[in-house]
Amino acid sequence: MVSQKYKDMLQAKSVIREMSAWANKRGSEIGYDNVFDYSLGNPSVPVPQAFTDKMIELLQTRDTMELHGYSQSQGIPSVRAKFAEYLNKTYGMNYTAEHIFMTTGAAGAVAHAVRVVTQPGDEVITFAPFFPEYNHYINQSGAVLKIVPADTESFQINFEAFEQMINEKTMAILVNTPNNPSGIVYSAETLTKLASVLEAKQKEYGHDIFIISDEPYRDIVFDGVDAPYVSKFYDNTLSCYSFAKSLSIPGERLGYVAANPKCTDAELISVMCSQVSRGIGHNCPPSIIQIAVAEVLGLAADLDVYEKNMKLLYDELVSLGFTCVKPGGTFYIFPKALEEDSIAFCQKALKYDLVLVPGDSFGCPGYFRMAYCVTTEKVERSLAALRRFVEAEYR
Amino acid sequence: MVSQKYKDMLQAKSVIREMSAWANKRGSEIGYDNVFDYSLGNPSVPVPQAFTDKMIELLQTRDTMELHGYSQSQGIPSVRAKFAEYLNKTYGMNYTAEHIFMTTGAAGAVAHAVRVVTQPGDEVITFAPFFPEYNHYINQSGAVLKIVPADTESFQINFEAFEQMINEKTMAILVNTPNNPSGIVYSAETLTKLASVLEAKQKEYGHDIFIISDEPYRDIVFDGVDAPYVSKFYDNTLSCYSFAKSLSIPGERLGYVAANPKCTDAELISVMCSQVSRGIGHNCPPSIIQIAVAEVLGLAADLDVYEKNMKLLYDELVSLGFTCVKPGGTFYIFPKALEEDSIAFCQKALKYDLVLVPGDSFGCPGYFRMAYCVTTEKVERSLAALRRFVEAEYR
Questions:
Q1: Which residue from A49, B2, B54, B286 lies 20 to 30 Å from A115 (Cα-Cα)?
Q2: How far apart are CA A37 and CA A34, in angstroms?
């Protein structure tokens, strides 16, 4: 019989998708160019030409069986070795190929990591504001997601609430820095403190507690911001990365789990991930994309656009009187709404063709997210609409 | 803590992999060309040039954001529509885009289909000989896999044993035709009888029973063999396809679930599959591959090689006295071993550099599988080794 569980899931609406659908519908009426659609976190900068050139070169020169053949379920060994080497060079780590498990994006990476370090009934803690898909990765694994309320002053970690929430059932902490939706980068101070709490709790409870570090925005960090590598602070760390944003290739679904070589069972994490994959028939990300990305490691799309957009928006928001923590990276900004009910606030904004997402589904009501992965020209045009909205509704 | 469940899975050895590892090790000693490696079911014919040309054309002409952008989680709408249209034209069906869910290969398709039509504790029946990875797709979903013993006369369905096994807990029947490992194609008679049993049981039990039809070898069918489309025989059918074999692109992980438009909740199957995907962070197969394959639908690699190899092997096996049902498709043949213990039989074959896989893990001890997706030249050279093996060990 058709599964009631998945049928029920169809009822749960995604606010982000609803907002995006509204934007598309409105776009069909007045032209999409005239809708200031800040709803979706889709990269908007072109794929680097060097990546396209590399793909064409591979197709023209490589043996097709090698290019399109099965990859081992952990990933192509030479690709995993190159990723390990790149991480070692960039972050001063000691990975080898065996610590790298290739996944379909950071989403696949987090979902696999959760299954490897928890059992059904275990608790996983994350910090608001957080990416709402975490609910699905964790709930479907059988573990339970617990949310630490946001520290809205800085969007760093609310340690007081965290220390009240952590308990013997806590097996993993899911962190996301640079953060979706706040755009905030966790400081070295935050990560040092987090590591020290976890070290103490591991001893107290007599079991491992892993950090699962969701890092799809690791390479989108703004000028002057220090973005520490989470795994440097805590041995039991599984880093989850994706090339979706840095290379602007979200549809090609390439990412990885990198297990800190000093973590418990470090040499087993990748093979265990491949057992998880096996059960869902998933096996490995596309071979040609694995090979192509490994050949252009370190290459990035022109990510400066996001910083330019952030500055335009941040300055305007502050000048309009919004309370707003300045993003250190990503392509998100997360200001406080001008009324307590951020859903009502975002509804009113639609009258001005401004598509914003209320903070409620990110575990942070009263705030709203703008995904400024749009053209700078559109950001510029949106500022007048933002001003009209605020002046008409809140002055 | 690291999950004991996945840790335990690492202990379970795969006989196919062990045989393949032996072949590679032996290859490093005497040259891989001199090892008659019939262990792995990896396509051996080149990717069609027209596919490579299409990939290059797309990379040279399409907007990169369109080519590499996020696909919707069910797949790119225009691609799903093209696949539906192709199936309708080829098999006289009435699919629309909404019935098609894009997956990472047939493995992903089967694993998703199982989760959509069963709940934990439900039973899924399959027929020996069967692809051993089914154990993982089903066990990890929480359902229970039941195996109907083989009809070794024909490798069609053993209906007597099947009707004893089916019960109120049976929610799905997993069929695989053309079959790995037997190479047999289910006849129209077999499928008609299967449908009629299931129609009766649906009424008796008062619930749906779905056929999950695993069809990665659908396009590898030999001259004169009629390969009926399973979904034509039974409304509650989910067809699971992969382009891995027909286009020789197993590493690119492209397949789909096609829900028969007359099945229960036909319009919900695909959206429910995307909820399953969501939980594993998987979301969608690579965009560029979806787009490229949709542009060359109907194209196939030169699959005639497999039939040539089959004939060479079948004739030699029969002339050596093996009992063997002639394959109707795939690139597998599944003869009876010359002693009861097929593991011992396959061990002895290694002395002659013949790498065969015992039937035990396919649920059919006493038989062995040869995957003849190797060059015809190698098949020809292997015949002498096969003769030496049989004459030395069994005459």
A1: B286
A2: 9
Nearest to A278 among B52, B133, B171 (CB): B133
Angstrom distance (rounded) from CA B392 to CA B395: 6
Question: What average pLDDT does the segment A114-122 reach?
Answer: 96
The predicted pLDDT at position A10 comes to 80
Nearest residue in chain B measured CA to CA from A277: B280
d(CA B290, CA A293): 19
Strand spans (E) along chain A: 36-37, 100-103, 123-127, 144-148, 170-176, 210-214, 237-242, 255-259, 332-333, 354-355, 357-358, 368-371
Nearest to A239 by CA among A33, A47, A88: A88
Q: Is B8 exposed, middle or buried (0-12, 13-18, 19+ CB in 10 A)?
A: exposed
Task: Give, as one character, the DSSP assignment of residue A367.
Answer: B
- ipTM given for this complex: 0.94
pTM listed for this prediction: 0.95
- Report whether pLDDT(B282) > 80: no
- Per CB-CB distance under 8 Å, the chain A contacts of B283 are 104-105, 107-108, 253
For residue A144, what pLDDT is reported? 97
Cis status, amide bond into B358, omega within 30 of 0: no
Which residue in chain B has the smallest CA separation from A140? B279
Question: How confident is the model at residue B163, as a pLDDT?
Answer: 98
Are residues A65 and B46, on separate chains, in Cβ contact within 8 Å? yes
Q: How many distinct helices (H) and strands (E) make up chain A?
A: 14, 12
Q: Which residue has the tokens 């007048």?
A: A384
Pairs of residues, one from chain A and one from chain B, whose beta carbons lie less than 8 Å apart: 238
Q: Is B185 exposed, middle or buried (0-12, 13-18, 19+ CB in 10 A)?
A: buried
Q: Does the pLDDT at position B34 exceed 80?
A: yes
Region of residue A369 (left: phi > 0; alpha: psi -120 to 50; beta: else): beta
Model confidence pLDDT, tens digit, residues A296-343: 999 999 999 999 999 999 999 999 999 999 999 999 999 999 999 999
